[in-house]
Amino acid sequence: MAQTDHKIIFTGPVGAGKTTAIASISDIEPIRTDEHASDMTQKRKSATTVAMDYGMIRLGPKEKVHLYGTPGQERFDFMWDILTKGGIGLVLLLDNTRPTPFEDMRFYIKAFKEFIDGTRLVIGVTQMDARPTPTIDEYVRQLAELDVSAPIFEVDARQRTDVSTLIEALLLQIDPTL
């Protein structure tokens, strides 16, 4: 049996939990390209991803899922196209404590529209324990207004089980027999 490799992309705004999510589920020590934040990002966190994060999970002896996290800052958007090449799906993480999480959602769905149209999307909303509104139902309504169909979950990016749920939901959309 041949080796089967898959590639999943994690994206979202700065501080949504991309680096943390990949670290929480990776079977290897993740590779990070964090640098000291030098712009308004430093108000949210001291370091930020400037190229990518990378992790990997094994689904079995001959199957791997490679996990790539994009930089959240728009000024690094040139990496988004590079990282999505060959990807099978997108995990969009949104931080519920940001001032306008629906605008964040619209922005990333639009920015990755071509990739999403050819693959699948799943959305995880972080920080709902710190700020319970908007609710998941409100996100679902916003998605419907965008004419986008995607599973959406409340997640804690630090919890392997939560991140696993996102990946499983994405993979099941691609192949319901998994």
Question: Can you put this structure into words, describing what you see?
Answer:
- Helices cover 32% and strands 29% of the residues.
- The protein has six helices and seven strands.
- The protein has a seven-stranded mixed β-sheet with strand order 2-3-4-1-5-6-7, with helices on both faces.
- Helix 1 (18-25) crosses helix 6.
- The chain is globular.
The secondary-structure class comes to: alpha/beta
Overall helicity: 25-40%
- Tell me the total number of β-strands: 7
Q: What does the main sheet amount to? A: 7 strands, mixed
H/E topology pattern:
EHEEEHEHHEHEH
Mean pLDDT: 89
Note the total helix count: 6
Strand content: 25-35%
Describe the global form: globular
Tell me the span between the first and last alpha carbons. Answer: 17 Å
Strand order of the largest sheet: 2-3-4-1-5-6-7
Give unreliable regions as ranges.
none
Radius of gyration: 15 Å
Q: What is this structure's SSE topology?
A:
Blueprint: E1 4-11, H1 18-25, E2 31-36, E3 47-60, E4 63-69, H2 78-84, E5 89-95, H3 101-111, H4 113-118, E6 121-126, H5 136-145, E7 152-154, H6 160-174
Helix pairs in contact: 1-6
Summarize the structure.
This protein is α/β, with parallel strands linked by helices. Helices cover 32% and strands 29% of the residues.
Descriptive terms for the model:
178 residues; 7 strands; 32% helix
